[in-house]
Amino acid sequence: MGMNYQQRFQMFCTLLFLSALFFALGFFVGLPTIALRPQKFAICFTFGSLTFMASFGILKGPWAHLRGMLSADRLPFTTIYIASMLLTLYFTFQFGGASGYLLVMASSALQLLALLWYLISFLPGGSAGLSIVLRAMCRILQPVFVLCAKLHATVMGYCFTYLTSSSSNSS
Question: Any keyword Protein transport (predicted)?
């Protein structure tokens, strides 16, 4: 791409930061409202995944990264990961209601599993390295997850109360 290593590393850091921003939006904005609008989470998470992949593509070089993703041992991952991102975006923009909710949730879950598979295969130390990183992240993010769970329970309680009071008022 005509960039030296320092420029590629700067672009890698920029895209990795943008990826973290999308993931943060997905988890802090999309996750609390996932019961009502999973599309918010799905879009943020998918764009976080795309920028995450692009960051490594810039660091290694786009063609080298693509060759690595299309190698025989990583081809199943690549197929599942790209398909899950495309399905997530397709379901997000094409389907609504209960069926759309389930489709978006299923494709987002598949995308998350594929992303974890990607991390395991590319991180130094493989699954042991990922385990260390995930434990550290869980310790750091545990208060946030607890707060999101409480907020989710509160919102669902209000929704349930509203729905039950609406149905009893209309009877």
Answer: yes
